[in-house]
Write a structure and sequence with these properties.
The protein is mainly β. It is 7% helix and 49% strand. It is built from two helices and 20 strands. The strands form two sheets. Strands 3-6-7-8-9-10-11-12-13-14-15-16-17-18-19-20 form a 16-stranded antiparallel beta barrel. Strands 4-5 form a two-stranded antiparallel sheet. The longest helix is centred in the first third of the chain and has 22 residues. The N and C termini lie far apart (78 Å).
Length: 394
């Protein structure tokens, strides 16, 4: 009986204490439901909805490291002054780059509203023959460049872009140094309209500002000098076998016209080929009486002489490895050859090894024109070099 009484008394005491504490209990608010990021698959992989909006956002970019050797004129080499005697030493051309990209997309009653930005930061030395001048070639932070920042509603695009003279017709192959013979300048603000018929036919009209103040006697002023814009137009026919494209541009500064036509062929699942030809007028670009003489090269007709050709292709050995090559030549007898092997070590990490060669056939002509586009060192008429690139894309 004593044990039973003790147990009953203990239970009563516990009930009393629990009741007293319950009267003083604090009510804990229910946590608000978490708002998780929603995947947006309307515009491709990698997009997500910005919380609270109907806008889809994608963030990406890459980190790149280049190691170049050889002659400066190949775009791969560098020189620097010897710190002991001041002589010229060949040295590596190295550059590290971080690129940040953003894409947005949203459906509206007037069509798809899109934006794209690309910002780059670079660190390294210069692809320049500084040693010949007795100057060192230091590595340094090269600053920030805004390569793209445009808004597009339906087919209308405004903002910072690359010229439709290049983007609409396509770059000159999958090699790193694709401008040993140049095919047109890039950076510009645009007011542009793109039309896609949906059956393989597309067209573009682009009003462009251009860029650059030129180099006296070597390269014309790229930025427009009045209210009159540069104008680019293009048409394209794309099918499963490839594409035929043509573009034409009017340089409002020097009042010259340049055009390019291109044929792309998907020969097999592994082989793709292209050939592109350019022609441009140059009476004013070669006129030495201009206050800012262009030396024969303008914002669109950058090649030497009236005509130029580029050709090349890609062969995919397998899903990870490809061989890329390009050959270019212009009326000024500039010959460019570039070839590389690109290998995907793992998804998102690619290593590319490239060899580049250029020969400037008229480099010694004293006609007042610029026959040395790539910066071949004094006393030489050709240059060769190589570049090793590591790139992590995300």
């Amino acid at each position: 009986m004593n044990i039973k009484s003790l147990l009953l008394g203990s239970a009563a005491a516990l009930i009393a204490v629990s009741g007293a504490r319950a009267a003083d209990a604090v009510t804990v608010a229910e946590p608000e439901p978490a708002e998780y990021v929603k995947i947006c698959d309307v515009y491709g992989s990698g997009y997500f909805y910005i919380p609270g909006t109907e806008t889809c956002l994608r963030i990406g970019g890459y980190i790149r490291y280049d190691i170049g050797v050889g002659d400066v004129g190949s775009f791969d080499g560098a020189t620097s002054a010897d710190v002991e005697d001041g002589g010229s030493n060949d040295t590596f051309y190295k550059n590290a780059r971080f690129t940040l990209k953003t894409w947005t997309g949203q459906e509206t009653e007037l069509g798809t509203l899109k934006t794209y930005t690309e910002t780059r930061w670079n660190f390294g030395n210069r692809n320049a023959d500084l040693g010949a001048d007795g100057s060192v070639n230091p590595a340094f932070n090269k600053g920030t460049s805004l390569n793209f920042a445009w808004i597009q509603l339906g087919g209308l695009r405004v903002g910072k872009d690359e010229s439709a003279f290049d983007t609409f017709i396509g770059y000159a192959g999958n090699v790193i140094q694709d401008t040993l013979v140049p095919y047109g300048d890039f950076d510009t603000n645009v007011v542009q309209y793109y039309f896609d018929a949906g059956n393989g036919f597309s067209a573009v009209i682009s009003l462009e500002e251009g860029a650059g103040g030129g180099t006296f006697g070597s390269y014309g002023v790229g930025t427009i000098d009045s209210y009159v814009p540069h104008v680019v137009g293009g048409v394209k026919w794309t099918q499963g076998w490839g594409a035929i494209t043509g573009v034409i541009a009017y340089d409002s500064n020097y009042e010259e016209v340049a055009g390019k036509v291109r044929l792309d062929v998907n020969a097999t699942d592994a082989i793709s080929l292209f050939i592109m030809a350019g022609y441009g007028t140059d009476d004013n670009l070669t006129d030495p009486t201009y206050a800012f003489p262009a030396g024969g090269r303008g914002f669109y007709k950058q090649w030497d002489g009236n005509w130029a050709v580029w050709g090349g292709g890609t062969y995919k050995f397998n899903e990870k490895t490809s061989f890329n090559a390009q050959v270019s030549y212009d009326e000024g007898e500039n010959l460019g050859i570039a070839a590389n092997i690109a290998y995907d070590i793992v998804p998102g990490l690619t290593i590319t090894a490239e060899v580049d060669y250029v020969n400037a056939g008229k480099i010694d002509n004293l006609d007042g024109l610029n026959h040395n586009w790539t910066g071949i060192s004094a006393g030489d008429d050709d240059a060769i070099g190589g570049l090793l690139r590591f790139q992590r894309s995300f």
